[in-house]
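Archive entry. Fields below.
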Amino acid sequence: MAPHRIAPVDALGIDIGGTKIAGARVSPEGQVLSLVTRKTVPDSPEDIIAAVVEIVNELDAGDTIPTVGVAAAAFLNRDRDLIYLAPNISWRDFPISRVLHEALGRPVVVENDANAAGWAEYRFGAGRDARSMMMLTLGTGVGGALVTEGQLLVGGFGAGAELGHIIIEPGGRLCGCGNRGCLEQYASGTALVREACERLGRDDLSSDELMELFRAGSPEAFGALEAIAQALGQGIASLVAVTDPDTIVIGGGVAAAGEVLTESITRHFIQAYGPRSRRPVAQIVPAQLGNTAGAVGAADLARRPHRASP
Amino acid sequence: MAPHRIAPVDALGIDIGGTKIAGARVSPEGQVLSLVTRKTVPDSPEDIIAAVVEIVNELDAGDTIPTVGVAAAAFLNRDRDLIYLAPNISWRDFPISRVLHEALGRPVVVENDANAAGWAEYRFGAGRDARSMMMLTLGTGVGGALVTEGQLLVGGFGAGAELGHIIIEPGGRLCGCGNRGCLEQYASGTALVREACERLGRDDLSSDELMELFRAGSPEAFGALEAIAQALGQGIASLVAVTDPDTIVIGGGVAAAGEVLTESITRHFIQAYGPRSRRPVAQIVPAQLGNTAGAVGAADLARRPHRASP
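PREDICTED_STRUCTURE:
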């Protein structure tokens, strides 16, 4: 494999999510030099493209930065020029690369948002010393990213590293994907809220209320976090058999719990992994780059020579 | 990623297994030009090295072929120069690269045998049109190999693609690895024999007897095969969420059952994968290269520029 060859110039990264668009001008060292955000209008593709153009113009600041990466909460094709489906934006079979190339007057590199965030952690964050990295992003669902042999794992159909959809409980809880027992159903932020509600006899909890309970040392809230950690430990015991990461990064909203969470996951992982643990064991660490990881990763991916098919 | 750059010369591949050593002179197109085998003396590392030297001399046939690859049934370190452990050969922390370099007077490239066989199928066999390939080798245990983004997935600690050790039945059957419920316990050749014995009320069955039962159309034997296929379908439904292969190759002794087996696995996979199957679905196909795949893959790997760390 060729060593990293990265143009030593600033790049722009735009992270298009379901609720907001965040754009960053990013140095070759991964520093965010400037940051611009806009609210997303999920059901208007035209408004989203217009907002991206505005953000890019603002970040250009008079120059025309030729290197633009885009992270999107979407299922992409393997060649990363077509969005099959974006669950929270009204894009279906949308030729995003061509549309943005025309709108911005320069080529763009597109990547799935969980992959872009994982790439940022690998290059500049919690995975920067890793040779093989896995990232689990705990939010509404459980997102995933894998960096193996120095590359993002994209998969044969573009849907690699959907780590939330390994099955940890055959015949278990029904998942949005249609399957039963997916890791996502036991380890997402949504699952954390559900676990806490069950323990507290509540119907619903906002994430602010949940944070308050953690601050107050609520045993029910910590019990719910422990349940999430156990599911993750069990899932990771299977996942390590596939890609054998040396570093596992936990990101997303739930990861705000920090080392309380990663230490608990580690404990459950070692227990589930059991006697095999005489081998070197992956370290499990919190993500470091927070909300801008998607934009930073997209910018950095855009600086790299385009991946060639094997 | 750089395109394949392969020296257009013959290479030697040596597959060191627990019962025999097979050496092949292999053309750049993957053809076996000559084949030499010796029995393995599992408890004598010196005899194994001496046998490899004999085989290489015979395959050299007067030249000194500079390109030698070795496949070994062993846990290797990430740099592929040290055997941590070979379950069926008395090697512990054995510096195989250095020893063979000295014995053969030329450098060697070493790979795990399941990986080498998987590489051969990817380059010349059932996976030659794949962009992302997974191979499951059904023998005494369940071995695995993954080719993603044009490279063998080696993993952070050298133990990637141990696909037999994902957990399909939490708390299930005890595995040799110390865990419970590993795929290997439900889908190996060993499991097939156990399933057939249970159905026939027998204590044991040789693989020849089992083959005879298949030929005779025994419902018990086919029921056992169906049980194996179901476990594989279930395991594959999780595995595809991780690496998203477009091609899944089934190899090893059990794969001699051919398309009866792969069609049954496909049926169970689609059932377990369920509604997600509106996406493109990986094809599941029998291996094509048989017993020499390990030697062919090792030879081809030796022809390639050595992988660099990222």
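CURATOR_NOTE: The domain at 129-288 of chain B is CATH 3.30.420.40 (Nucleotidyltransferase; domain 5).
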